[in-house]
Design goal:
The complex is a heterodimer of chains A (about 575) and B (about 160). By secondary structure, chain A is α/β, with parallel strands linked by helices. Chain A is built from 20 helices and 20 strands. Chain A has a 6-stranded parallel sheet with strand order 3-2-4-5-7-6, sandwiched between helices. In chain A, strands 11-10-9-12-13-14 form a 6-stranded parallel sheet, with helices on both faces. In chain A, strands 16-15-17-18-20-19 form a 6-stranded parallel sheet, with helices on both faces. Chain B has about 160 residues and is α+β, with helices and mostly antiparallel strands. In chain B, about 25% of the residues lie in helices and about 40% in strands. Chain B contains 4 helices and 9 strands. Chain B has helices at about 15-25, 55-65, 100-105, 130-135; strands at about 1-10, 30-35, 45-50, 70-75, 80-90, 110-115, 120-125, 145-150, 150-155. In chain B, strands 5, 6, 7, 8 and 9 form a 5-stranded antiparallel sheet that branches. In chain B, strands 2-3-1-4 form a 4-stranded antiparallel sheet, covered by helices on one side. The radius of gyration of chain B is 19 Å and the shape is elongated. The chains are: A alpha/beta (about 575), B alpha+beta (about 160). The interface of A and B includes residues 123, 127, 147, 182 and 311 of A.
Amino acid sequence: MELSGGHILVQCLKDEGVEFVFGYPGGSVLHIYDAIFHQDDVKHILVRHEQAATHSADAYARATGKPGVVLVTSGPGATNAVTGIATAYMDSIPMIILSGQVPSPVIGSDAFQEVDTVGITRPCVKHNFLVKDVNDLAETIKKAFYVATTGRPGPVLVDIPKDITDPNIKIPYKYPKKISIRSYNPVVTGHKGQIKKAVDMLLSAQRPIIYAGGGVILGEAHQELRELTRLLGYPITQTLMGLGAYPAPDPQFLGMLGMHGTYEANMAMHDSDVILAVGARFDDRVTGKLANFCPYAKIIHIDVDPSSISKTVKVDVPIVGEVKPVLDQMIELIKESDQQPSKAALDSWWKTIEEWRSVNCLDYDRHSSLIKPQYVVEQLYQVTKGNAFVTSDVGQHQMYAAQYYHFDQPRRWINSGGLGTMGFGLPAAIGVKLAHPDSDVACITGEASIQMCIQELSTALQYNTPVKIINLNNRYMGMVRQWQEFSYQSRYSQSYMDTIPEFVKLAEAYGHVGMRIERPEDVKDALEQAFAMKDRTVFLDFITDRTENVYPMIEAGKAHNDMKLRVAPSAPVDSELS
Amino acid sequence: MRHIISILIENESGALSRVAGLFSARGYNIESLTVAPTEDPSLSRMTLVTRGSNEIIEQITKQLNKLIDVVKLIDLAESSHIERELMLVKIRTTQDSREEVKRMVDIFRGKIIDVTPNSYVIEMTGQSNKLDAFIHGFEAESIIEVVRSGPTGISRGEKGLHL
């Protein structure tokens, strides 16, 4: 079959089983859009801004495990996509970005809508390609999918000059079934000797802890993680990106660790003697002050990316490999082993942990006359029975979502962890809803974040993706305000917006339902009403306590055992803020 | 400590900038970098001289290996190796100094490859410190121009860096 480049591209996507392409047309991709017009298999989702295309595709990937696909035009189309590409890169999300480029003969001449897309995106993609010959197009697309989805996943961009998709140049089409790249051979199984060493170390631990990250979810290893954790009876903590891999309601789960992690998780990390790190990368928000990080611990680290190992924290037993087969081997070795974890040591360790847990670090004022943001998330958890897909933006609301929505399944918690991209939540919710049309999807956001991609309310209407927007509206950039309160003597520099739109009217203007909730006693009813409207996008504008902070907190540069806890649930209200 | 990292990399446009970009993005220093195609024109050989603690060098090699275009690499400093650098120097000469310069070139086993009434171009290869020593043998004002390739290297023995 002879096809032009535009049709080849669309055919490649079909052959890869791509369901949705998130994109925005423009001059350099018109041939491709014409090819899209001629078929119905690959559905195009027209966003309102290219940043949203990348976030929607990214969230689709996070919620399904399949790569997300983005199509943007050259120049501003590509530069608008960069934030979303970097977001996916930081969280190792498989994504394919197809960007149009000006025709090959004019590349380098500062042509209309020309930028060096390959150059601009180089530091925030796993790999990128510039297609120079239509005969290479199909193979390049195959390579892009292969690189994006294997090893440590990540976004891969393919820049396609307009002449490559010229409808008048037709060539035979053949999509390669398999591909290998001689310079790219990701490791799958771990080193046997190292795994044996790790198991011995784990079984002889006195104060062990399992520290699991997003790699467990990316590597589809949550069952293995659960089995291993239960087999050992050890406490487990998870990073922001790992939430859901191990069920949060389980008593062995200590909560999230790190800057806004629980007291028990951080104290247990600090006092532990053996840490099993699984698919986690010792990010600065997790470790706090490196010099004081887990001073008594020997560390075992399983990661598919060798460069994650000993990058910030030196580890004792590195295991390079995919999390799933490595955990499988560990489980097998533990079952075969004559050695058992010391019951006495473990009992005493759990006793200490329960003391930390009894501090009840996530407690807050449940009798306030103002709506507490934590309360909204707790009610959301109740109303959705813990089964919703929850996306979030970035800030206080993100931390409340992580702390109070007790995820018990992987791929349900969808947030920008590494890059911390405000504006992620709404387009992400749309991507998730397209992937799981029968599931409840909630976007937990704040009045600052939501305005960064608010235009996607229009996309939500066009594609009938009824999501529920939980806006925790405290009339501040809450996390910025919190840091200013703690570190800048409450000088709230530019963290307040004087003019916040009437979100109810705004939602209605976009064709959705808007609700404003001002009293705690109305929170539950409002949520129930909203989720009962199965086919409507509902914007719930919760007017929350402006003074509320995220606790506990490890302030920047401090250690795990140096946490700031809530002083008293009803601390006096700052008069300026009331 | 100084390390010489020898890299076999796909001879693709942009491959060099991926390496250079990695160093600047992560704050690693590059003392020198040389690159040219190998006997297989689809591959380039790159020699990169850098400095850093063992931890930094470990990260550098891991990050380089992570680049999709990098086929293989070795840190030559880890084992016995040979390194050479090529230098071309243009020296201002006078009637009185020409013999002396020629003697210096002989001592350092260089070659005079261009001659004018007032200058020589000298070609010299060797380890970088030998080239440094040669240059230091001249007054600054007599040196018109110095071009150095940066070191390249190869390991001793039968083993080699290839596909």
